[in-house]
TrEMBL record:
GO terms for cellular component: actin filament; cell cortex; myofibril. The gene is Cni-F38E9.5. It is found in: Cytoplasm, Cell cortex; Cytoplasm, Cytoskeleton. It comes from Caenorhabditis nigoni. Keywords: Actin-binding, Cytoplasm, Cytoskeleton, Repeat. Residues 314-333 are annotated as: Disordered. It comes from the Eukaryota. Actin-binding protein involved in motile and morphological processes. Inhibits actin polymerization, likely by sequestering G-actin. This is Twinfilin. Residues 1-135, 170-307 form the ADF-H domain.
Amino acid sequence: MACQTGIRANAALRNALNLGKQAKLRLIKIVVNNEEMTPNYEFAGTANWRDDWKACLPECVDAYEPCFILFRLNTITEWVLITFVDDRAPVREKMLLAATCATFKSEFGQCYIEHEKHVTDRKDLTLTAFESWLKAKTELGPMSEVERELHNAQQERAAIAHAGPQHLKGVAFPVDRNAEEALKKLAHQQLSFVQLSVDTLNEAIKLESTLESLEPSALASKVPRDKPRYTFYNFDHTWEGVPQKCTLFIYSLPSSGSSIKERMLYSSCKGPFLGAAQNQYGVVITNKMEVDARDDLSEKALLEVIHPLPVEAPKQFSRPAPPRAGPRRITKV
């Protein structure tokens, strides 16, 4: 591994990388200039990544200027990192770029990079050349049963890694307008039931269904047990003679029936989404539940979550009374 130079990303590059992670940029070209990594070219792009590729590459690349190119295919976790180093470029610049590669990937986040490609000729940056390389990379040759199992395990690990950085608190997906309106109505007690889903393709929180009133006995039938969902339920009830209003958040995550990436995204989005629901839309969550296909969602189960039984304090062990004082007893054998 090349020795790292200590060259870091400047403020402009950090801003560009953040925009890229929000899917606001399609392409970012990075060069090493004045002992720092800086963006040299940015392209917002359209909805079609192939048209964007043909519009930018290889025209934005200079044969005498080594650079990193980040190109987003579809989602925020499908970035291609291209290291372009032409043979005609100055030796010092080629060495600087090679020694900065690990630092750059650390700055951007390895989990966002789906493919890496090293290019030494601008001809290899055409869309036709890239698609041929990508096809050859993704096609599988003949494999034994053991090799197939190892490959499937590797794919599952990659799906978990690309669902989002594990050290971060969560992934904040935007909430669509219908879901925002439903959450505001829920906060003002105009709705009793609001259910939302994570659109993994468009990376957004979307509204699934709403109800103005829902009896507790019918709640279980409204929560699907074969796919993950976020559910809010305004539970009006009486406890010990006192009417009470509670807002429950139910996170349903089935053990089967959904992909690993889908389950990871639901888990990663939950924290930021709940923060937005409470801080931006005014939802006051009194209790949270996490259920799978086997858990009970009856009225009794809801009451046990809201009003748990008091836990009895452990009883202290009472020592036996010491023997009474008196003359020493002699036991005859």
